[in-house]
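Help needed: design a sequence for this.
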């Protein structure tokens, strides 16, 4: 594995984050010649029987495909052990017969960020970093704080003072991070972080190529859980676009290694008020940043850092990019809940996107679809509460039972109701 610029291809040093020649993002390149796919598959499968910490992680179990990190530096919380649930209610909501949720919210800090963070913080520890820093809409912050706590590294997070989930901030504080609430949005916070010296602090936003390496392991875990059968579509929410880059890279590597024989199409779904990538995908040209506005606060991002990488991945996969309204996200989120699964608002952009792509017939009714859910339902309790208090189509109101009679009447109503 070697580190090089994802844009101009120039080799890069391990302690930098951007290409010294063109300022592009860095990426690891894998040497496919070194692996036998049959042996790889059986090695991965055998490790599931082991109780060794690195084998019980759904990231380190795939370590042949990761940049080398000494074992003593590995910081793991047994991340990326991922359930795949059939999406019954969600599938019929979107008029799709073969949809399943890949739930990345079922991770130690309840979002997909853990898969990348275990690698980025392990690398930081191996390098002897004392401080890790990130800009965040909440989930990266929580993940960085947890892994830093385990590594004995000071965590400094920059979050927008307004408009992110209080649960995520509380979680980050619990893990002992220093939280700086800035007067500005995520894009401003990332700008500040990017101006820091990566030689002095470990910058662990998804511009860090180690993050991408960890996150790509969700693809291997997914494929393994499907006995290496490739779905027709992978649909995921897009914010800063690190995860899109990671998923694209994971599938391409699986193809190059002979683990699979084709690529799935990748569909990226943005919130309408934060959709510069969707615009660019259809209109061409370079990224034109916007001031992001959406109630799906995790993806309230107007200048996605990884747009070039993500664009390459979506195009290579024959996929697409679209945007959905905040109301569509809200209803789709409630539907994911009705499946007994649940997710946070940004995650539900995926299902809202599938519904629209089915309406347009871009996705066929019988296509095999993986709907990626990126964060747990409890990540944003306030959002769920206000949805259920509203007049939204899938709102589920609390029943007021001020007296015993009222309670008995409700019990009678429920128990005598015809199914
Ligand atoms: N879904 C959730 C729940 C997220 O928290 C994020 C990003 C995304 C989707 C989008 O992923 O940025 O890789 O395209 N959250 C970041 C954060 C920005 O700070 O937690 P992306």
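Sure. Designed sequence:
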């Amino acid at each position: 594995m070697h580190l090089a610029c994802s844009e101009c291809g120039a080799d890069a040093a391990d302690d930098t984050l951007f290409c010294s020649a063109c300022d592009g993002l860095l990426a690891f390149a894998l040497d496919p010649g070194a692996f036998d796919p049959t042996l790889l598959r059986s090695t991965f499968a055998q490790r599931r029987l082991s109780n060794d910490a690195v084998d019980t992680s759904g990231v380190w179990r795939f370590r042949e495909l990761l940049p080398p990190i000494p074992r003593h530096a590995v910081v793991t919380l047994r991340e990326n052990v991922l359930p795949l649930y059939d999406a019954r209610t969600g599938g019929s909501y979107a008029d799709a017969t073969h949809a399943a949720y890949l739930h990345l919210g079922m991770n130690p800090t309840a979002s997909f960020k853990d898969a990348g963070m275990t690698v980025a913080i392990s690398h930081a520890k191996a390098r002897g970093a004392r401080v890790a820093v990130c800009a965040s809409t909440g989930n990266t912050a929580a993940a960085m704080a947890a892994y830093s706590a385990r590594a004995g590294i000071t965590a400094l997070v920059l979050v927008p003072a307004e408009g992110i989930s209080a649960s995520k901030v509380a979680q980050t504080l619990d893990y002992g991070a220093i939280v700086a609430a800035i007067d500005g949005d995520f894009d401003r916070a990332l700008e500040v972080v990017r101006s820091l010296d990566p030689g002095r602090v470990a910058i662990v936003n998804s511009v860090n190529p180690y993050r991408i390496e960890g996150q790509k392991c969700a693809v291997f875990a997914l494929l393994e859980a499907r006995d290496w059968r490739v779905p027709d579509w992978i649909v995921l929410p897009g914010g800063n676009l690190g995860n899109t880059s990671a998923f694209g890279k994971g599938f391409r590597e699986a193809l190059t290694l002979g683990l699979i024989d084709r690529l799935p199409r990748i569909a990226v779904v943005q919130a309408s008020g934060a959709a510069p990538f969707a615009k660019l995908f259809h209109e061409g040209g370079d990224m034109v940043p916007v001031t992001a506005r959406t109630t799906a606060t995790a993806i309230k991002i107007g200048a996605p850092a990884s747009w070039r990488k993500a664009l390459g991945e979506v195009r290579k996969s024959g996929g697409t990019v679209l945007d959905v309204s905040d109301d569509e996200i809200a209803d789709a989120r409630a539907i994911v809940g009705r499946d007994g699964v649940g997710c946070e608002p940004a995650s539900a952009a995926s299902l809202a996107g599938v519904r629209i792509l089915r309406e347009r017939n871009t996705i066929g009714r019988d296509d095999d679809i993986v709907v990626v859910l990126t964060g747990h339902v409890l990540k944003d309790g306030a959002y769920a509460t206000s949805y259920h208090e509203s007049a939204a189509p899938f709102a589920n109101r609390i029943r007021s039972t001020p007296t015993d009679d009222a309670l008995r009447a409700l019990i009678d109503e429920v128990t005598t109701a015809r199914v």
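The CA atoms of residues 266 and 319 lie 5 Å apart.
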